[in-house]
Description:
The chain has 295 residues and is α/β, with parallel strands linked by helices. The chain has eight helices and 16 strands. The chain is elongated.
Amino acid sequence: MLLGDGDGFVSCACGRRHWGLHGAAGLLLTDPSRGVLLQHRAGWTHHGQTWALPGGAVRTGESPARAAMRETEEETAVPADAVRVLAACTEDHGTWSYTTVLATTRQPVRALVANEESTELRWVPPEEVDSYPLHRDFAAAWPRLRPQLDRELVLLVDAANVVGSRPDGWWRDRAAAARRLRDRLAVLTHSGVRAAELGLRPAGSWLWWPRVLLVVEGQARETAGIPEVEVVAAATDGDSEIVRATRDCRRARPRDHVVVVTADRALRERVRADGGDTAGPAALLDLLDERECPR
């Protein structure tokens, strides 16, 4: 076997050997109509003859999400542009880490055994996964991964409340302030949001690539959306529009995490009554500051 960048075993602090000099990553891909994509590992591979996820070693300077997508395309011929990455969960041992990247299909895909690392690929209903002889690490992680299958984080941002939380002159041009916030929010769809950064659930080592909706009202109603951020113009008042958008999101995809960013106490109570979660403007703005000026 010809070793590539990142290939090789690491003697981990946990006392076991793991594959991937810079860590490893796998893709937990869900097709809502067929289940999750499992790979039957070839006998010659590490933990061969078990069922696990397509994936492999992370290359130098590569993100775990990119590694999971690249390895999956190499092993299954599922193209990256047919997949929507939703979240990631990392098991970090200090000397080595493994990241499970959760994604869902954007369109029907056909998975094919594309190299010698697997003998079969199979779409398995989630309720049947436990019946397979699983790779021991995947078996251990499955109980915390399964509840998040095909779940998206939706951030509904109360533009007026957020831009008004800092005295930076926003009142002189509210439309421009809304556009600045829109452009700043775009970074979150690329960098992702860690659960702890906004007090989201589940806590721990979860990272989410959110769908972002910015709700604007008044002078900011003419703000246009951009590819990374959907803009929703309130027909009347912003609070009613946010409540309506929360209900629409939960009606369309009841299992998604819907988080409204606002400091308005009454609005927060209305959102929670409809099953949504809330976060404060300060947490969001601090997060955006961190992304723009990383320590």
